[in-house]
Specification:
Belongs to the SF3A2 family. The chain contains four helices and ten strands, in the order αβββααβββββββα. By secondary structure, it is an alpha+beta fold. It has a domain at about 120-225: Immunoglobulin-like, CATH 2.60.40. The strands form three sheets. It has a four-stranded antiparallel beta sheet, with no helix packed on it. The protein has a three-stranded antiparallel beta sheet with strand order 1-2-3. β4 (about 120-125) and β5 (about 135-140) form a beta hairpin. It is elongated. It starts with 18 loop residues before the first helix and ends in a 13-residue tail after the last helix.
C-alpha cells in the first residue's frame, strides 16, 4: 500500500491511512489470499444468481463480484459460520459428505433428482365370496434400479398438508426412487389385512408393481373391536 504519496504527508514520511483505504487494502489482501486457496467451482456455498451477483449460501450475503465473495470467505463471519456448521455436523454424527464417522461404507441418503411419476392403472374389484369391495393398482417403474422395490404406506388425512383434513378420506402412498412419490385418495375405511386380502408384488423383469386393497365389510368394521367376538368367516 502506498503511504508515501498520500495528500498532506511529507515526502518519505508515509502518512496515516484513512479507515476506508485500510479496509480496501485489507479486502484486496484477503482476495489474493483466497485466490490461492479456494476453487470457486468446488465451493458448495458459492452461487451466482439470475442478476449476475454472487451469493454465499452459508451466510446469506450478496456480493457484486467474485473478489468481494472471496474476501468474504476469509472474514470473521464466514469462518464463524463454517465452524458452527462443522460443529453441528459433528454433533449429528456425520461429516460434510454425509458419511457417518466409523462407518465408511454407510452413506446417509441424500436428496435425489426425481424423474417424474410412474404410469398407473386402477381397477375396481370385488371378492366373489365375501362381497368385499376393493381396488387393484398397477404401476410401471421402468427406470427403477435392480434390487429396489417400491414401498407402500397408508397415511391419514391429518398427516398431509396439501388440502384441508377430512376424516372421511385416507391416502395410499407409493414411493420408489428416483420416481416421485405418488398418492391415491381412498375412503377412510379399514383395510382387511388377513388371509392375503391386502398384498403387494413387484415383477423385477417387467418393472411392474401391483397392490391389492380390500376393505372390510360394514359388519366387520362395526364389530372388529368388540372383545370376544370372533371374526366372521366367508359367506356361503
Amino acid at each position: 500500500m502506498d503511504y508515501q504519496n498520500r495528500a498532506g504527508s511529507k515526502f518519505g514520511g508515509g502518512g496515516v491511512a484513512s479507515q476506508s483505504a485500510t479496509n480496501a487494502d485489507r479486502r484486496e489482501r484477503l482476495r489474493k489470499l483466497a485466490l490461492e486457496t479456494i476453487d470457486l467451482d468446488k465451493d458448495p456455498y458459492f452461487f451466482k444468481n439470475h442478476v449476475g451477483s454472487f451469493e454465499c449460501r452459508l451466510c446469506l450475503t450478496v456480493h457484486q463480484n467474485d473478489g468481494s465473495y472471496l474476501a468474504h470467505t476469509q472474514g470473521r463471519k464466514h469462518q464463524t459460520n463454517l465452524a458452527r456448521r462443522a460443529a453441528r455436523e459433528l454433533k449429528e454424527g456425520r461429516d460434510r459428505d454425509g458419511v457417518i464417522p466409523g462407518l465408511p461404507n454407510v452413506q446417509v441418503r441424500r436428496n435425489m433428482i426425481k424423474i417424474g411419476r410412474p404410469g398407473y392403472k386402477i381397477t375396481k374389484i370385488r371378492d366373489q365370496v365375501t362381497r368385499q369391495n376393493g381396488l387393484l393398482f398397477q404401476m410401471q417403474f421402468p427406470e427403477l434400479g435392480q434390487g429396489n422395490a417400491p414401498r407402500v404406506r397408508f397415511m391419514s388425512a391429518f398427516e398431509q398438508k396439501v388440502e384441508e383434513p377430512d376424516k372421511n378420506w385416507q391416502f395410499l402412498l407409493i414411493a420408489a426412487e428416483p420416481y416421485e412419490t405418488i398418492s391415491f385418495k381412498l375412503q377412510a375405511r379399514e383395510v382387511d389385512r388377513k388371509d392375503g386380502r391386502f398384498w403387494t408384488w413387484f415383477d423385477e423383469d417387467s418393472k411392474e408393481f401391483w397392490v391389492q386393497v380390500l376393505f372390510k365389510t360394514e359388519r366387520d368394521e362395526r364389530y372388529s373391536n368388540v372383545p370376544g367376538l370372533a371374526p366372521s368367516g366367508p359367506r356361503r
